[in-house]
Specification:
8-stranded mixed sheet; 3 domains; about 450 residues
Length: about 450
């Protein structure tokens, strides 16, 4: 606490930074690190603990977005696959390849529906068969051919799939296997990136339990939630990286925006040895009857399953409710009818809100998962622009941070010093350690 008091006092003593970043999730922290490595002084704040929001409540997947191909988001998938492979390289202490199997219930399903979705027609997703899935996985392998970090995909016969995954639905016709990646400690990775940033540029500051509490002509008013004190901080650029709370944070400085249309994704942590053993260290990625894609995979000595995709108006009210729990068990029974998994096996439930853009479509699954910057330029009463970060995922945070940093540095007249593509993250440097290597 004394250290925190000193940092707050330092802000009061010198209340000016070229860039203030509100939001200590993966996007805000990624940008903080990116700017620090370019020599840009910046201040990172969060109203709560760092990584307390959606970044700590994800599916723990680092993935290319196979499902996004159906929405013709090829640029996003290419970027996500590239960033996935960079994370496998740069954060090997937390990110590793994850073998994934898709049970397939038809050969030709989706051959009509998927092209209609691809061309933007209002068709409900679902019914994806082996040929459609194989096409998407072939694209996966093609994109990563020059920087391959995972094995190529393959199809398995029904008989082999049922032998490999006990309890799987016997009505399948085949199974497809490919590789994405998982992250074990997203929270620790974020904290290590803050440490990286502070080491690279000691003029930067990061402080949590500080919130936006108004704006003046050339400053934002920051309130310390611990002491109750407020201080105006002069700045040149404000970045709103608060995720699902973007519109709420903008309202705190007098901006009325309607950028966000978040959906909640609920997950369950299951303690069931039969299910854990059946998965055999891989993830099963499956489609429910309503077209929603679900996942189940081993995590530590438990199993994570999810997720839902339900629109929420207030991210502070998002909870995993009983209807969602029932829904997730229904999806699991469809794909694993031969296993006994019950409500009593649930040891934990969690819910995060995806920071998606506002959309009017009927099917939330069709809302773009891409990221973008909404810029509110200075007006008569405010001399600084506000850059609101929309979307973004754990997988693509570095690319989003790079794009945002370049936009900021262009405004500041600062040139990029280095690319962060191949700079290890935190404990990813020299991993495994010599001690760990000797222990093996």
């Amino acid at each position: 606490m004394n250290n925190r008091n000193e940092r707050w006092q330092g802000i009061k003593d010198n209340p000016q930074y070229p860039v203030v970043i509100a939001g200590g999730g993966i996007n805000g922290i990624g940008l903080f690190r990116e700017l620090a490595l370019q020599g840009v002084d910046c201040l990172l704040i969060d109203k709560s603990d760092f990584v307390a929001g959606s970044s700590s409540k994800s599916s723990r997947m680092i993935h290319g977005g196979l499902r996004y191909l159906e929405n013709a988001e090829f640029r996003l998938v290419r970027e996500a696959l590239h960033e996935r492979n960079l994370l496998i390289d740069n954060a090997p202490h937390y990110v590793s390849p994850l073998r994934t199997t898709i049970p397939l219930f038809s050969w030709l399903g989706g051959m009509i529906k998927s092209p209609l979705i691809f061309f933007g027609l209002p068709v409900k997703p679902g019914g994806r068969g082996a040929m459609i899935v194989k096409g998407g996985l072939t694209f996966y392998d093609f994109v990563t051919r020059k920087h391959r970090r995972t094995p190529r995909n393959y199809l398995s016969s029904k008989q082999k799939a049922l032998r490999d995954i006990p309890g799987l639905n016997p009505n399948i016709v085949a199974a497809a296997t490919y590789w994405d990646a998982r992250i074990t400690q997203a929270e620790r990775l974020c904290i290590e990136m803050i440490q990286d940033a502070l080491k690279a540029n000691p003029n930067c500051r990061a402080l949590n339990y500080v919130r936006l509490d108004g704006a003046e002509k050339d400053a934002v008013v920051l309130k310390d939630e611990v002491s109750g004190e407020s201080v105006p901080v002069k700045l040149q650029v404000l970045v709103n990286a608060t995720g699902a709370w973007v519109d709420v944070a903008n309202a705190a400085i007098g901006l009325e925006t309607k950028f966000m249309g978040g959906t909640k994704g609920s997950h369950l942590v299951i303690d069931n040895r039969e299910l854990f053993d059946a998965l055999g260290g891989q993830m099963v990625y499956y489609e429910h009857g309503d077209g929603r894609v679900c996942i189940v995979f081993g995590f530590m000595d438990k199993v994570i399953m999810g997720s839902t995709d339900i629109h929420v108006d207030d991210p502070d009210e998002a909870r995993c409710d009983e209807d969602e729990i029932s829904y997730m068990f229904e999806t699991l029974r469809d794909v694993f009818p031969g296993l006994k998994v019950s409500r009593g096996d649930v040891v934990y439930k969690f819910c995060g809100v995806r920071p998606l853009p506002a959309a009017s479509g009927e099917f939330s699954g069709k809302t773009s998962r891409d990221h973008s910057i909404e810029t509110t330029e200075p007006d008569g009463g405010r001399t600084f622009p506000v850059l609101s970060l929309i979307g973004g995922k754990l997988t693509t945070f570095r690319a989003f941070a790079e794009q945002t940093a370049d936009a900021i540095m262009s405004r500041l007249g600062v040139e990029r010093k280095t690319s962060t593509e191949h700079i290890p993250l935190g404990g990813g440097r020299d991993f495994p350690s010599d001690e760990a290597a000797r222990a093996r």
